[in-house]
Every structure is written in structure tokens, then in C-alpha cells.
Request: fold
Amino acid sequence: MCLMGGMGIIGALISGLGSMMGAMAQANAYKQQAALHRRQAQAERQKGAYESQRNERKIKRATGSQRAAFAASGLQLDSGTALDVMSDTAAEMDLDTQAIRYGSVLRSGNEEMSARIAKSNASAAMIGGVAGFISPMISAMGSGFG
Reply:
């Protein structure tokens, strides 16, 4: 009878250890996923900064080309239609720059949230692993004494 109880406890220990090892592997996978999301968030911020700078240079080139074309046509640059067109062009293109930045912030924030969720899942996996380790031990001990 003692041998059967001992075998039950050994079986429960092996089962619990397997559960714990599986939970540790799952937690590690979630941690790696969180790290990936954090790197992606950083990449999104860098991409947004780069694209907004490119768009700002594009604005300068466009308004510079307009200025040169208007000057070559003999138009007054500091008032009237030429000034209105250059101002409108710059304003519209500035909206594009703002949209690029906003999109970058959103994508980066989504990645950061995904990283936090993955980190939370890693913690939950570890808690589940502990429970998965303890539960068969309790059952085996209860069976051994019953």
C-alpha cells in the first residue's frame, strides 16, 4: 500500500514538473514576443521621425520650386496669388507631416500595448505552471492518505 502511495506521489511530481516546465517555456515565448513588440514600437517611432523629416524636406523643395517659378514669371512673391498658393501648398503638406507623425504614434502605441499584454501573459503562464505543479501533488497526497 505504501508503495502504491509512493508511486502516486512520484507520478504526481513528474506530472507537476512537466506542467511547470511547459509553463516556463510558454512564459519565455511570451517574454520574447514582448521584446519583439518593444523593438517594433521603437522602429515605428524611428520610421515616423524619418518619414516626417522627408516630408518636411519635400515641402521646402515644393515651395522653393513654386517661388522660383513665380519669380521667373515676374509675380510678386510677398503678396497676392503667389503668396496664397505657396502658403496653401505648405499648409497642405504640413498636414501630411502631421498625419505621418500621428500614424507613427498610433502604431508605436499599439506595439507597446501588445508588449504589455505579452508580458502579462508570461506572468499568467507562470502562475498556471505553479498551479499545475501543486495540483497533482495535492491530489496524490489526498489519495495516499484516503
